[in-house]
Amino acid sequence: MTHVPGSTPSVHLRVPTDEDALSWYRVFDDPEVMEFLGSRRAEYSVYEELTARQRRHDAELGHCLWTVLDETGQVLGFTGAQPWPHTSFGPVGEVEIGWRLGRASWGRGYATAAAHVTLERMRALGVREVVAMINARNARSMAVAVRLGMRQAETYTSPVSKQEAYCFRLEL
């Protein structure tokens, strides 16, 4: 499929399946994809736990990090919303939206299209505001946040990586 600039690609979101753990492991096994997430590949077991946790979030909260599929059913990555996972820094207690796609899907509008679906779902659930925490060097993700209408608010430094991250906010 050729993406026409300015057009919105078709995406489908689903609650992650057991099989999606392997799909995520494969599409994220790329140093460029993981550049702002520690630059190292995650073990398969990390994705098994992550997809299981997302199924729990969906069952308990009505939202999670959903698997993103293109119009052919190919897994591109994930997008969605979950509670901010840290208690010692960042937007503690807030709902964070996020996205991560395999490199083959970059620059084609998939992240923005999928994140728009996430925002629609969050509005339908009555969520009033979402945040997106983005590494200060990740220009691609910041561009997605801006296209979603988010505004840059606070700046945090990760206690582990010591890297700066921007908290983007959007009232729904």
Can you walk through the features of this model?
With 172 residues, this protein is of the alpha+beta class. 30% of the residues lie in helices and 27% in strands. The chain is built from four helices and seven strands. The strands form two sheets. A four-stranded antiparallel beta sheet has the order 1-2-3-4, sandwiched between helices. The protein has a three-stranded antiparallel beta sheet with strand order 5-7-6, with helices on one face. The longest helix is centred in the N-terminal third of the chain and has 18 residues, at 44-61. The chain is globular and about 40 Å long.
SSE blueprint and pairings:
Blueprint: E1 12-14, H1 18-27, H2 44-61, E2 65-69, E3 75-83, E4 95-101, H3 110-124, E5 129-135, H4 139-147, E6 151-157, E7 164-171
Antiparallel strand pairs: 1-2, 2-3, 3-4, 5-7, 6-7
Helix pairs in contact: 1-2
